[in-house]
Amino acid sequence: ATKRAGATARERAPAPETRLSSPTKIIFPDRGITKLQVAEYYRAVAPHLLAGIAGRPLSIIRCPSGAGKPCFFQKHHTAGLDVVRFVRLKEEAGINANYLVVDDLAGLMELVQFNALEFHPWGSHADTPDIADRIVFDLDPGPNVPFAEVKRSAQQVHDLLQQLGLQSFLRTTGGKGLHVVVPLNPGNRWPLVKQFAKGFAEALAGSEPDRYLATATLKLRPGKIFVDYLRNGRGATAVASYSLRARDGAPVAVPLAWRELAALKRGDAFDLDATVARLKKQRKDPWAGIDTIRQDLASLG
Ligand code: ATP
Ligand code: MN
Ligand code: MN
After folding, report:
1. Among 112, 120, 105, 110, which residue's Cα sits nearest to residue 36?
2. What is the ipTM of this complex?
3. Of the candidate ranges 80-89, 163-172, 211-220, 288-297, the one whose mean pLDDT is the lowest
4. Of 183, 200, 234, which closes a domain?
5. pLDDT tens per residue across span 59-96
6. Where do the DNA ligase D polymerase domain residues begin and end (predicted)?
7. Is the pLDDT of residue 163 over 80?
8. Nearest CA-CA partner of 291 in 137, 131, 129, 169
C-alpha cells in the first residue's frame, strides 16, 4: 500500500476504515473495557481529538496487552500503517526519521487498531515543524501536594500570563497534574518559545520557592509543584485533549473552561464515559477561540 508521504488530506480520497481485530480484548482490566469500547470512545470524540492532533507530528502510546501491561511510546511510522501518513523530519541527532501524522478519522482508527491508547502531538505542525503554535505549562505535583494547590498554581499561571497579555487554556491530564496551554498565532520559533517557557517557570519558582520548582533535574519533590516547561521544544510532546490515558480507570485529558477550575476535584476526574457524556451536553467548546486568537511572543510588550 502507498504511504502517502507528503500528501495532504485534501489530495487524498477518503481511506476506508481499518477493520478492528480482537474487539473483545480487555484493555482496561479494572473496568472491563474492551478494545471495541476504546474504538467507540475514539469514534465518539474524533472531531474534538482531531482538532488537537491532525496534521501534527504525533507520538502514541501503544498498549498491545492493555493498560495494566507494558506499553511503549512510538514516534515513528512503522510497517503496516497504510492510512496514517508520515512526515520526514530531522531528529535532534541530525538524522532524518519518519514521524507519524494523522489527518482524519480513518487514520485515528488505524492507530486504535494498532492498540494506540494515548495520543501526544508536537506543539507544531508537520509542514512547519520549527514554528510552535502551542506552549504547554505542565504542572507536576510532587508527593503530598494537595490537588487544591495544583489548582491554585494553574490559576496563578493563567493570571501571570494574562498580565503579560497572553490568553491561556486549562486541561486536565487524566493524571495527577494540570496543563495550561497558550496558543501562538502566528507561531514562534522553538528557541524563543523554549526560552520564554523556561524564563516564566524560573521566575515563578523564584517568586515562591517553597511552592514551585523549575529545575529539570530535581523534578518531583515532596510538597512542591514542578513547573515542567520542557514540553516546549522541537520534538517534545504533551498529551492531546480527549486522549485516554493508559492508567487505571480509563481517565481522559479534558479541556476545561477556567470557570470550571473551582469545582474540579482531581486531574483524573473524567473517565471515558464522563467525557462522552460531557461532550453530549456541552453547548460551547471550553476552548472556543483557541485557533483564532492572535497573540505571539514576538509582539509582547
Ligand atoms: P500528569 O498530570 O500525571 O503529570 P502528564 O501527561 O502531564 O500527566 P508527564 O509525566 O508530566 O504526564 O508528561 C508530560 C508529557 O510529556 C506527556 O504527556 C508526554 O507527552 C511527554 N512525555 C512524558 N514521558 C515521556 C517519555 N518517556 N518520552 C517522551 N515524552 C514523554
Ligand atoms: Mn504533567
Ligand atoms: Mn511533566
Report:
1. 112
2. 0.94
3. 211-220
4. 234
5. 999 999 999 899 999 999 999 999 999 999 998 778 89
6. 34-287
7. yes
8. 169
CATH of the domain at 214: 3.90.920.10
- Whether residue 11 is predicted with pLDDT greater than 90 in this model: the reply is no
Domain that holds residue 62: 23-122+237-253
Q: Please state the atom number of ligand 1 nearest to the C-alpha of residue 239.
A: 18
Split into its structural domains, the chain has a count of 2
Neighbours of ion ligand 2 (CB under 5 A): 138, 140, 177
CB-facing half-sphere around the CA of 48: CA atoms within 13 A: 25
Last residue in a domain, options 205, 234, 263: 234
Give the closest residue to 168 by CA, choosing from 134, 194, 145, 219: 134
**Is 263 inside any structural domain?**
no
Residue 244 has pLDDT above 60, yes or no: yes
